[in-house]
Amino acid sequence: MTRTNSSEPSPPTTDVRRRMLATKRRDTPEELRIRSALHRSGLRYSIDARVLCSSRARADILFRRVRVVVFVDGCFWHGCPKHGTKPKKNAKWWAAKLEANIRRDRETDCQLRAAGWRVIRVWAHEAPEQAARRIGRAVATRRGAAGFRGPRAPRRGRSR
Ligand SMILES: [Zn+2]
User: Which of 17, 27, 34, 61 could form a disulfide with 11 if both were Cys (CB 3.0 to 4.6 A apart)?
Assistant: First the structure.
């Protein structure tokens, strides 16, 4: 089987494959905590959504109208400077894999910014309330900016 993306090494062992499969891609505890903090502050958003059709990247939290996109990055998979660890077993493979992840993150950021999105990356280790405040500020800034008010909400009660 050939992989379409040659920069992405395929797992060398079943061990590694298992670890990859066991990793939750959405609804991680960190995401849930940030989401509930946002919700409490009255913000509404989409989750686990594709932002650009040209990119495979799925955003963890998305404010479509104001074009703010949030990724909650796991410390291991995205190479956190504080907690990013490098497995000793299959070290070479892991190094390539994690580097490819980081490179893809930066490419995604670049594409999204070029398309007018404000990209926010939150480390899984960050305090959720603090992250939610950071996100809330970005959304508020975008809402305040001209041209980002978006369409009006559909009027209700017309059938009254
Ligand atoms: Zn970390």
Answer: 17
Is residue 152 assigned to a domain?
no
Specify if 65 maps to a domain.
Answer: yes
pLDDT tens-digit series, residues 74-97: 999 999 999 988 899 999 999 999
CA of 102 to the centre of ligand 1 (A): 14
CATH code for position 84: 3.40.960.10
Q: How many domains does the chain have?
A: 1
Cα(119) to centroid(ligand 1), Å: 18
Q: Which of 70, 41, 71, 63 lies closest to 145, judged by CA?
A: 63
| Contact between 132 and 38 (Cβ < 8 Å) | yes
Q: pLDDT of 4-53, one tens digit each?
A: 444 566 777 777 777 777 676 778 899 999 999 999 999 999 998 888 87
Q: How far is CA 104 from CA 11, 36, 88, 98, 157, in A?
A: 17, 28, 23, 10, 46
CA gap 19, 87 in Å, rounded: 12
- The two tokens of residue 100 are 């490819």
Q: How far is the CA of 135 from the centre of ligand 1 (A)?
A: 18
